[in-house]
Specification:
It contains eight helices and seven strands, in the order H-H-H-E-H-E-H-E-E-H-E-H-H-E-E. By secondary structure, it is of the alpha/beta class. The structure holds S-adenosylmethionine.
Length: about 210
Amino acid sequence: MKQVLARRRTTSEAFFSSSASQWDRLREELFGPTSHIKALGGLLDPNLVVGDLGCGTGTVSHWLSQFCERIIAVDASKEMLEAAQENLAGQEHVELRQGSLERLPVETCELDIALLMLVLHHLPEPRRVLAEAARTLKPGGRLLILDMLPHEREDYRQTMGHVWMGFSEKQMTQWLLAAGFEAIRWRALPPETKAKGPSLFVATARRSKLSQDS
Ligand SMILES: C[S@@+](CC[C@H](N)C(=O)[O-])C[C@H]1O[C@@H](n2cnc3c(N)ncnc32)[C@H](O)[C@@H]1O
């Protein structure tokens, strides 16, 4: 037994010492480029109620559905929700609701986590949507925004109906504070190798326990 274990250790040590320069490529070849990021969803408390606000075709809800027991996915578009319904078939714990982000079909303090992924740049009044997100979050609940850094792609206004050409940290921080959020964190994300769009940021914030009665 000892000899077998020692032989195995020697084999893996030999593999690691010879493959350091190739490991990143091999890892991606074997398991894909995002396996480690997907695995981090396992850190989420499964009891958390997550709101996927502006869920589109349900890509994010689908991934989260492995880790969370209740997801409320909201979108205004009938077509997007139909696609989401198809993508989320059999995921009974993901509830699709049609409605606007300016007047969310979500109860006050219903959510532990609210996600606004790639949606704020479409909205004429982001401040109103942030205030709605705050209303639907429990005191201390967390908001996560994924969106674009300021960019020059004017054509997106015509081709995709973008209203905002990205957001700066200063602007988003002011809006989040005004909407009753605190503990604001901002990170510019490193560009993905094959991505053609503008660089993204992720902002997280906590709904203040004092900002609203609950
Ligand atoms: C670019 S998609 C992003 C979808 C998804 N969050 C994702 O990351 O793949 C933006 C979504 O926001 C929805 N949307 C835009 N404005 C909205 C509004 N005022 N109320 C509700 N949904 C809205 C659109 O219908 C669309 O599905």
